[in-house]
Specification:
Layout (H helix, E strand, L loop, with lengths): L5 E6 L7 H17 L4 E6 L1 H5 L6 H18 L7 E4 L5 H9 L5 H6 L1 H9 L8 H4 L1 H11 L4 E3 L5 H18 L7 E3 L32 H9 L20 H9 L2 H7 L6 H10 L4 H27 L2 H30 L7 H12 L2
Parallel strand pairs: 1-2, 2-3, 4-5
Bound molecules: adenosine-5'-triphosphate (ATP) and magnesium ion (MG).
Adenosine-5'-triphosphate (ATP) binds next to strand 1 and helix 1.
Length: 364
């Protein structure tokens, strides 16, 4: 029975959230929340993790905490059903990470594909901050502190969840069944696993500046869509075009639903027909981009509207986060109690230990 599900995900407050986050994880979270098929759901703002590669710019992280919270609320996450919290306010996570560090080797971290790519992306090859290098360990702490079973995330997070699972298994093997094994919940739509940037680069990412943000105005979105990367060999309308690697079609795969054709492009029955025409030649990029723009605007407009409403009362957003942090802390503290007991470092709660030591010394 999936009422046993505990769902957890987070985002780094390094910028506002974009449509890659939306299709990769955020949209799924809202669906899961609305289906109600879970015991608990946690969504957190990973500010401590964001500091691991932004330590010289704490202001950026601080400013973006509330932006991410607004994006959550705007997308429909509901604080009465989901615990929304800020990572740094849960000190238990540091303590868990500290113990987990002993269960992981340096070479295992060096082999983690996500760490490898992200080190490269940030030009950290010659000087990796230790905190950044060990962030899979702190991510294992985030996941296990809340006994998460299910982590809805994009494909880039797969190696992270694998590493967390290894830590759980090793902990349970050494100290006895204590921690819960997590599983990643990937988007079922292939285009959403890793949405490319508007420049056609492999991943839309805050750090690469190739994003369409959920909070952007209709005009800005339209401008970005109209200048998106398509197929560089499709120069004249009559030329045959390519769908693979064509970002506009990848976004259509991620966002287009059958009813969009009736509404915005009634000449075509479905996406397959549109693609076939593009491949044959005779279909211009502009027409496809206008279609994509209409779809995106339809999806983003209600999000923008809700955001504007929540923006009117920022102190209420902080209050909501404070309450979320309190709830989250209770859960993390109870897991930490289990961990300390399993590791036998709960000296003062262990009457048996004290009695046993007293006897040992009495016999001397
Ligand atoms: P940063 O560049 O600071 O790492 P980011 O844009 O990669 O930021 P994260 O906060 O690292 O965003 O990712 C948050 C969540 O969104 C993760 O679950 C991640 O898998 C998902 N995600 C991020 N970018 C994409 C994308 N382009 N396509 C699909 N999912 C994505
Ligand atoms: Mg990232």
């Amino acid at each position: 029975m999936s009422k046993e599900k505990v769902i957890l995900t987070g985002d780094r407050p390094t910028g506002c959230l974009h449509i890659g986050h939306y299709v990769g994880s955020l949209r799924r979270r809202v669906e899961l929340q609305n289906a109600g098929d879970y015991r608990q759901m946690f969504v957190f703002i990973a500010d401590a993790q964001a500091l691991t590669d932004n330590m010289d710019n704490p202001e950026k992280v601080r400013q973006n905490v509330v932006e991410v919270a607004l994006d959550y609320l705007a997308c429909g996450l509901d604080p009465s059903r989901v615990t929304l919290f800020i990572q740094s306010q849960i000190p238990e996570l540091c303590e868990l990470s500290f113990y987990y560090m002993d269960l992981v080797t340096v070479s295992r971290l060096q082999r983690n594909p996500t760490v490898k790519t992200e080190i490269q992306m940030r030009g950290f090859e010659s000087s990796i901050p230790v905190g950044f290098f060990t962030y899979p360990v702190s991510q294992a702490a985030d996941i296990t502190a809340f006994r998460a079973t299910t982590v809805p995330a994009g494909e880039d997070q797969k190696p992270m969840i694998e590493q967390a699972t290894e830590i759980v298994r090793r902990f349970n093997y050494i100290y006895g069944e204590t921690l819960v094994e997590p599983a990643i919940l990937l988007p079922d739509n292939a285009a959403c696993l890793r949405l490319p940037g508007t420049d056609g680069k492999a991943k839309m990412s805050k750090s690469l500046g190739n994003c369409i943000y959920l909070s952007e105005s209709a005009d800005e979105v339209q401008k970005k869509v109209m200048s998106m990367y398509t197929d560089p060999t499709h120069i004249h309308v009559q030329d045959p075009g390519h769908i693979e690697g064509n970002t506009v079609f990848t976004y259509l795969d991620a966002f287009c639903r059958p009813e969009h054709f009736e509404r915005y492009l009634p000449d075509y029955p479905n996406l397959d027909e549109l693609k076939a025409h593009y491949r044959r030649g005779g279909l211009g990029d502009m027409k496809v981009k206008r279609f994509l723009n209409a779809i995106l605007q339809e999806e983003l407009e209600p999000i923008r509207q809700r955001r504007r409403e929540f923006q009117k009362d920022i102190p209420a957003v902080y209050d909501m986060l404070r309450r979320g942090c309190e709830e989250a802390r209770n859960v993390a503290a109870s897991t930490l109690d289990d961990v300390r007991r399993a590791m036998k470092i709960n000296y003062f709660d262990d009457a048996e230990l004290i009695a046993e030591q007293a006897r040992r010394f009495a016999e001397r």
